[in-house]
Amino acid sequence: MPTATGPLVTIGMPIYNEEHYLQSAIDSLLAQDYENIQILISDNASTDSSAAIGVRAAAEDARVHYSCADENIGSAANFCRVADMAEGKYFMWAAGHDEWAPDLISTSVIALEQNAGASIAVAASYWIDASGERLDRDTDYPDTRSQGLIGRFLTVFWGNMHPVLSLMRTDHLRRTKSMQSFAGADLVLLSDMVLQGDFVLEPNTWWHRRDVRNKETHSERMQRYTSVEFGQVKTALDRRFPILRLPLALMSTVWRARIPLTQRLVLLLLLLPLMPVRYIVGVRKANKQAGS
User: 3-210 maps to which CATH number?
Assistant: First the structure.
């Protein structure tokens, strides 16, 4: 397909102190064989040289736009900020330390253009370390087109969160509450998206998600989420019980979904016993990875 005339794709890059990999991440996106893109870099008041890198990138390529918040507004708010600025038919959040195959955008656009009932096009994803070497960690994600609505909802419920960094329909995203400020908000967002349409797997293209954090237990992860700098919680109750809002938000998402009442009731009944099980599984998985 003639990439220059295809639908506009907005790539939103919310960053904070990404100087080590930011230039390579920008270069990876500018190397896409799909040319009709805009890259919106939203700097959350970085204290390193990220600003200089972003300003230079915007000066060198008209497809790149750089803006910086006056103060740290928190991770979730920065994700929302860059999504609100999107102009494209399709949108993708991109981390300032990841890498993408040159055909990821073009392949994902074709997948969404050919599947009107899809919300997100999911590429194969691989964890990499600081040097770019692939890690032996499971990142598989199934295609939901063969599943009914309840099946695809449960796929997201039990799956990893990688599709949140995949190409999605902008209008579908704007029917959600975007990235909310509490631990587990990415699961709520993906649940909302999958209730609107399928997640289409494109296994022949890929992206690398770089692991830039030290191994952390579930408790340490919650401490990071509730830190002032991370900005993922807003109240004292959230800081004391960081997971409290997650089940309530999931149930609210199901209840307001544009699906038949019978399906909403079935999903709500399923969530009641499944949410504590998922929490226990998540704690054990995090602690196991931290100890490995």
Answer: 3.90.550.10
Which position has the token pair 């979730």? 76
pTM of the model: 0.91
Compute the distance between CA of residue 24 and CA of residue 15 in angstroms, rounded to an integer: 14
SS3 per-residue string spanning 224-269: HHCCCCCCCCCCHHHHHCCCCHHHHHHHHHHHCCCCCHHHHHHHHH
Q: Which amino acid is at 80?
A: C
Let me know: does 65 contact 58? Beta carbons within 8 Å: yes
Residue positions counted in the chain = 292
Q: How far is CA 176 from the centre of its chain?
A: 13
In tens, the pLDDT along 62-117 reads: 999 999 999 999 899 999 999 999 999 999 999 999 999 999 999 999 999 999 99
The 3 state secondary structure assigned to 163-228 is HHHCEEEHHHHCCCCCCCCCCCHHHHHHHHHHCCCEEEEEEEEEEEEECCCCCCCHHHHHHHHCCC
pLDDT per position as a tens digit, 15-44: 999 999 999 999 999 999 999 999 999 999
Q: Identify whether the C-beta of residue 210 lies closer than 8 Å to the C-beta of residue 95.
A: yes
Question: In the chain, what are the domain boundaries?
Answer: 3-210, 218-291
State the maximum Cα–Cα separation within the chain, in Å, rounded to a whole number: 54
CA distance 171 to 168: 9
Q: Dihedral of CA 219/224/226/232: which sign? A: negative
Classify 77 as helix, strand or coil.
helix
